[in-house]
């Protein structure tokens, strides 16, 4: 086994072999999840705490289901209602939870770097469920698994990531992962939504959908992340849809068998036409959700194995 990490904080530190190890194990969990009995006991006796400091529907549900199917005791902390509102710092909250001896902490936080900081203060495995605009590693892994299953490979593909790149941790983690596996990545969006210094990532940048989508294998759409915008980044949603929204006319420039992806939540009629999102011949959006549960099961299984081994060796306090 090539995955030896203590935490899953981002895609950046992962080697291609580690990525493949997670994806290969995820395949087994896809089969388990499709069966009649969806239970395994690999996390039996372990405690998983989900701390979401930001709203989430699918990611939180998916981590909860993943933990339960693997037999962990799963607790969801409602951070809106917790002491954070009373001014307790992130670190104090983490130390309080740490005293309850969790084994796996799943954390989403609005600030980039907050999850890394927390991981330094606790003695259990930490999984980043999205930190600010930094990373969202399990999303990139589930996207990779979806692509690999649909295309039969995960290298030398032309992949377009479209829309609000600047505010997107999904884009960042995907650029890192797909780049490590030697794919060609194109970023398409208005210049105001492109991060500074993006050329260093070895990507091609377009501000025209028809040019950018020419002959791509994968079209990944992103939500306009208004909650992270502090000014006017686009003239209007109508204008944005006209230029950057994925509709049949623009999709026709991609390869005939190109797949359409979206991490959700989707804004129909803003970044994507509803009919394309629902077209089962093109859209793999529902598969992404399915793969999300399997990938999170695999990630927690691997981290728990490492945790047990490292605790036996006395590596952890
Ligand atoms: C994404 C996120 O929270 O970063 N959603 C998700 O995890 N499925 C993308 C988004 O919020 O637009």
From TrEMBL:
Q: In which pathway does it act?
A: Pyrimidine metabolism; UMP biosynthesis via de novo pathway; (S)-dihydroorotate from bicarbonate: step 2/3
Kindly state which keywords UniProt assigns to this record, in alphabetical order: Pyrimidine biosynthesis, Transferase
A Gene Ontology molecular function term for this protein is: amino acid binding
The residue range of the signal peptide is: none
Enumerate the InterPro entries for this protein: Asp/Orn_carbamoyltranf_P-bd, Asp/Orn_carbamoylTrfase, Asp/Orn_carbamoylTrfase_sf, Asp_carbamoyltransf, Asp_carbamoyltransf_Asp/Orn-bd
| PROSITE patterns associated with the record | CARBAMOYLTRANSFERASE
Q: Which residues bind carbamoyl phosphate?
A: 58-59, 108, 136, 139, 264-265
Q: Locate the Aspartate/ornithine carbamoyltransferase carbamoyl-P binding domain: which residues?
A: 6-148
Q: Where does L-aspartate bind?
A: 86, 169, 223
Task: Tell me the subunit arrangement.
Answer: Heterododecamer (2C3:3R2) of six catalytic PyrB chains organized as two trimers (C3), and six regulatory PyrI chains organized as three dimers (R2).
Record function comment: Catalyzes the condensation of carbamoyl phosphate and aspartate to form carbamoyl aspartate and inorganic phosphate, the committed step in the de novo pyrimidine nucleotide biosynthesis pathway.
Q: What is this protein called?
A: Aspartate carbamoyltransferase
Q: Which organism is it from?
A: Actibacterium naphthalenivorans
What gene does this protein come from?
pyrB
């Amino acid at each position: 086994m090539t995955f030896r990490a203590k935490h899953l904080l981002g895609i950046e530190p992962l080697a291609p072999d580690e990525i493949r190890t997670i994806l290969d194990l995820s395949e087994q969990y896809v089969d388990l999840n499709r069966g009649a009995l969806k239970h395994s006991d690999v996390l039996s006796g372990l405690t998983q705490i989900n701390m979401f400091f930001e709203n989430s529907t699918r990611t939180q549900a998916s981590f909860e289901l993943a933990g339960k199917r693997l037999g962990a005791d799963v607790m969801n902390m409602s951070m809106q209602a917790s002491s954070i509102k009373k001014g307790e710092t992130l670190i104090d909250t983490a130390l309080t939870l740490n005293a309850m001896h969790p084994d796996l902490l799943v954390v989403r936080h609005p600030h980039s770097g907050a999850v890394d900081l927390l991981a330094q203060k606790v003695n259990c495995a930490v999984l980043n469920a999205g930190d600010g605009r930094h990373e969202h590693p399990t999303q990139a892994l589930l996207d990779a698994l979806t692509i690999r299953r649909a295309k039969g490979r995960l290298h030398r593909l032309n992949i377009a990531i479209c829309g609000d790149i600047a505010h997107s941790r999904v884009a960042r983690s995907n650029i890192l992962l797909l780049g490590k596996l030697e794919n060609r990545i194109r970023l398409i969006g208005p210049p105001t939504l492109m991060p500074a210094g993006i050329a260093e990532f070895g990507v091609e940048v377009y501000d025209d959908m028809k040019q950018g989508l020419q002959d791509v294998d994968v079209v990944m759409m992103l939500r306009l992340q208004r909650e992270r915008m502090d000014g006017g980044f686009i003239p209007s949603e109508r204008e944005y849809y006209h230029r950057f929204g994925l509709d049949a006319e623009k999709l026709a420039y991609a390869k005939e068998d190109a797949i359409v992806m979206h991490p959700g939540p989707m804004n129909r009629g803003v970044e994507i036409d509803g009919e394309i999102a629902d077209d089962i011949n093109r859209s793999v959006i529902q598969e992404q959700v399915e793969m999300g549960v399997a990938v999170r099961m695999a990630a927690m299984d691997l981290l728990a194995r490492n945790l047990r081994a490292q605790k036996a060796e006395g590596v952890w306090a």
